[in-house]
Amino acid sequence: MVKLAPGDKVAILSPASMINPAYVEGAVATLRQWGLRPEVMPHTLGQSGSFSATATDRLADFRMALLDDDVKAIICSRGGYGCIHLLPELDRVMSSGEVAPKWLVGFSDVSALHALWGRHRWPSVHASMTKHLALAGPDNSLNQRLLSILRGEKLRLDLPTGFSGVEAGRLSREGVCRGMVVGGNLAVLGGLVGTPFNPIRPGTILLIEDIAEPIYKVERILWQLRMAGIFDSLAGLIVGQFTDYRAPSADHADMYAMINAFLSQGGGNAAFPVAMDVPVGHVDTNHPVILNLAAELEVGEGSATLRYH
Q1: How far apart are CA 299 and CA 49, in angstroms?
Q2: E strands, 14-146, in order
Q3: Could you give the domains of the chain?
Q4: Is 208 helix (H, G, I), strand (E, B) or coil?
Q5: Residue whose C-alpha is closest to residue 288's, from 105, 127, 74, 55
Q6: Are 282 and 108 in contact (CB under 8 A)?
Q7: What whole-number distance in Å separates Cα of residue 13 and Cα of residue 52?
Q8: Does residue 66 sit in helix, strand or coil?
Q9: Which of 61, 83, 263, 293 could anchor a disulfide with 123, C-beta 3.0 to 4.6 Å?
Q10: Residue 290, H or E segment
Q11: Is the pLDDT of residue 270 over 90?
Q12: Which residues contact 230 (CB under 8 A, 6 or more apart)?
């Protein structure tokens, strides 16, 4: 695992949607206060339709960052649709033997890139990006937690459950399991099933979150995963925040009630631990989580702990 040291170079790039330049400037200031050396890639602040640049130019930024031996971490400026355009070519670059592992930081649609990192057994961090680095600043507790992870210091992560306060969100399934932690945005993960980039393998601990997806669409993706056999072999499940959806539906009081009902229907390995309603996803308190690294997940009453090996 890469461990950042003072003076290490950190690349900031925009793999998908365009970004407010002020967020990148603020993130640069935070990284500098941490003693790191940020470099904003050439097309990070551009615009091409809704994207930061053409797919060719976004790939060029990524290739430059990957091939630079001084770059130890890549922070995505933001998510947004478009990361999937980059997977096949980035996979070839990472398979070339010319690049060393680097941290990847981001969430939302960046989950497609986390899946690619997992394909190559490179750890990455599901965490907030330039907006939070800029607005919350270097001393914010979650930004400090991200820094500790990048330095290789934070290998135990404590997550409260029942974060949103809804009744169904308190219905975690207690227990202990071990496996590779993978996942991120549920809609993105559903789109990777059946492709070489699907990160969900037997024995994994799956993290899911999403934004602006109706309850029935989330349920449909969960059924897709079930019919693909994924729930047959999960070691554990971490259910993050599902925000900006319409609730209640005619069938469920809220998203967590639907997820609880789905899990209670059984099928597959129905006994795996479930950490329900943790503060991971499209919320200000988006706790950083290391992906693509083996861990022990312990789910207790009101909290869950990840201990990485």
Answers
A1: 44
A2: 37-40, 71-76, 103-106, 124-126
A3: 9-150 (3.40.50.10740), 156-308 (3.50.30.60)
A4: strand
A5: 127
A6: yes
A7: 9
A8: helix
A9: 293
A10: strand 289-291
A11: no
A12: 193, 200, 206
